Every structure is written in C-alpha cells, then in structure tokens.
Amino acid sequence: MTGFLELHSAAVAQLEAAATLEAIEAVRVEFWGRKGKLALASKEFGKLTPEERARSGKLLNEYKQAFEQLYEFRKARLDAAALDARLESEWLDLTAPAPGVRPGSLHPVTQVQKELEDLFVSLGFAIMDGPEVETEHYNFDALNIPSHHPARDMQDTFWLRDGRLLRTHTSPVQVRALEKFGPPLKMIAPGRVFRNEEVDASHEHTFYQLEGMMVDRDVSVAHLIYFMKTLLSAVFHRDVTIRLRPGYFPFVEPGFELDIQCLICGGSGCPVCKHSGWVELLPCGLVNPEVLRYSGVDPKEWNGFAFGLGLTRLVMMRYAIDDIRLLMSGDLRFLNQF
Ligand code: DAH
The domain containing residue 163 runs over which residues? Predict the structure, then answer.
C-alpha cells in the first residue's frame, strides 16, 4: 500500500530528531495517536481486496511495532538524560561538614551572675531586686553618703528631671531589703548600675554589680572573710589568698578593700598585678550603724557585713576581656565566643 512507508519513514526521522520527552510524545500522537496519520490509514482498507488488506494490515502492524520500539528506546534515553541533569543540579555532598545547629547563649555577665546566685542561695542568701530609677534617699542619704561625697558629684550621677536618679550602685537594695524584711537577713542584689562617665576601654555608663549583705547578731569581720573566701574560691575554682586593706565608704565602718593574691604569678609579682603580688577585687566592710538606723534596725542589737562586687569587672577578669565596651556592643563576633 503506497504512502505507508513514507509516513513511517517520516515518523522514524522525527522521533530520532526529537530532543525532549514532550517532542517524542508529540510525534507519537501525530502518527500513532487515536487520530494519528498511520492509525487512520487502516480506515482505507475497505477499498482493498482481501489479499491486499491482509498484506497491508501485516505491514502496518510491523511499522507500528518498529515505531513503538524506537519510541521506548528514545524515551528511555531522554528519561536518563533528564535524570542526569537533575542529579547534576541537585546533588548533595554527604561527606561535607554539616553546617551545625547554632543555639543562642547567655551573655557572659548573665552566666557569671547565675553562677554566683546559685552559690549564694546554697549559702542561705536570698536574691533581691531594687529599682534602677532610684530616689536620692535610697541611693545616697540612707547610705550615709553626705552631700559633699564625690559619689554625689553631678558628673557621676544621671539625674532625672523629677529629682530621682539612675542608681549609681546596688547598695540602695541593702536599705530597701532591711526595711522590708528586717534582721536577721542574708541577701544579695545583682543588677545594673549607671554612672555619668566618659566611656573608654575601662569605663562604661552602664555596668553590673552584685551587692551582698548579712545582718545578724554578733557578725564580725571573720564572717566577712569566711564568705568572701568561699565566694572567691568558687569563682576562680581554686583556693585563694586574700587580704584586707582599709578603705573608705560612708556606709561601712570599718571599710575595706579586699585584695586577692595574684592568680597569675601566685604573689611573686607580674605585669597583671603590676608586680605587687595582689589584685584589688572588691570593697566591703561592716555595715555602718547609721545605715542600720536609717533602715529601721537597732544597731545595739544587730550588726552585719556588706560587700559590693563589680560583676562586670569580675567577668572581664575571668575571660580576659580587655575592653568593657565589648560587653554591651551586641557584637555577635564577641558574643558567639561564650
Ligand atoms: N557601693 C559601692 C560602689 O559602688 C561599693 C561598695 C563598697 C559596696 C563597700 C558595699 C561596700 O556594700 O560595703 O562604689
């Protein structure tokens, strides 16, 4: 039957030229789909003699099988090529190092604060809080700070228009706590304090202190030394040697500067301790009877010790941070190290 061979040859040529799965499908529909050119050819068989019809039918069947074989072959090739392309673009290197989960972490000041809180709670101290916006009374007067004291200098204190101020230390919480709970009392008060300072590598307008106080009957300097040694051994993870030097703070009498024997050189002298063998660590003393009186506590019956730990300073010592501004910078390159 004329025409079949030409059609079949055209179908085969187009199949071989088609470069996509859509294109070979289009060729199949064109020739062997329900209304395809070769599929419809059998409709014309009616005009043929029985012998011609049988021959033509057989021929058409062979063409169809040949086409289907070639179609499957081309389809397999194109499927494989599509898969190769996908593998090329979507590969995943299972041997590459994982990007890793990066959980957040607590600020170094928070970490050390929590550590100290746990320690003091284990020693029977309560954790207390006071306002950051404080009155002149609690920040100064009740702490026996007379108006000529340098801490009252306008340059040191952020005053608010209404006469209140940003607390310059955590010591006001001593008075608030005594007023509220009375003696006997063992408390610490960690928190933020503010000074109107020129900011540089060792001065910030905002930093952290941890106030501590114990008021009971017959509290002596021996109690103070015991608690400070316990505290510092826990902080530095080793036994520490301390010494007290006289220091003046209006709210303690006697007042001390507590030094710790240099942990770097063991006391023989090095650049860290400026060759003195000692590092100044925290001010402390026995609570001034005036402060007890201001807090409504009878100093004939009760006395106590107090200390003001520079939390920010301690964190800087612990992690060898040489610029205080890093702590409040929010710089992730810094924070990610903790
Ligand atoms: N409040 C003092 C300051 O910020 C530090 C201080 C000194 C606190 C002696 C105390 C203390 O409790 O006894 O400079």
Answer: 108-335
- Percentage of the chain surpassing pLDDT 90? 66
Q: pLDDT tens digits, residue range 169-228?
A: 999 999 999 999 999 999 999 999 999 989 988 889 999 999 999 999 999 999 999 999
Nearest CA to ligand 1 atom 8: 308
- Residues 32-53 have a mean pLDDT of 84
- Tell me, what's the pLDDT at 46? 77
Q: Which of 74, 59, 61 is nearest to 24 (CA)?
A: 74
Give the pLDDT score at 155. 62
Does residue 235 sit in the same domain as residue 302? yes
Q: Per the structure block, which two tokens stand in for 50?
A: 């029985």
Is 156 strand, coil or helix?
A: coil
Give the residues across from 244 on adjacent strands: 258
Q: How far is the CA of 307 from the centre of ligand 1 (A)?
A: 6
Which residue CA neighbors atom 5 of ligand 1 most closely? 308
Instruction: Name the residue of 194, 249, 309, 312 to mutate for ligand 1: max ligand atoms within 8 A of Cβ.
Output: 249
Q: Is the peptide bond before 254 cis (omega within 30 degrees of 0)?
A: yes
Q: Is 211 in the pocket of ligand 1 (CB under 6 A)?
A: yes
Which strands, in side-by-side order, build the sheet including 206-216? 126-127, 185-194, 206-216, 303-310, 278-287, 252-261, 242-246
Q: How many domains does the structure of the chain reveal?
A: 2
Name the more confident of 47 and 116: 116
Report, as an integer, the average pLDDT of 122-135. Answer: 97
Do 44 and 78 belong to one domain? yes
Q: Are 237 and 183 contained in the same domain?
A: yes
* 145 and 83 in a common domain: no
Is pLDDT above 70 for 1? Answer: no
48 and 133 fall within a common domain:
no
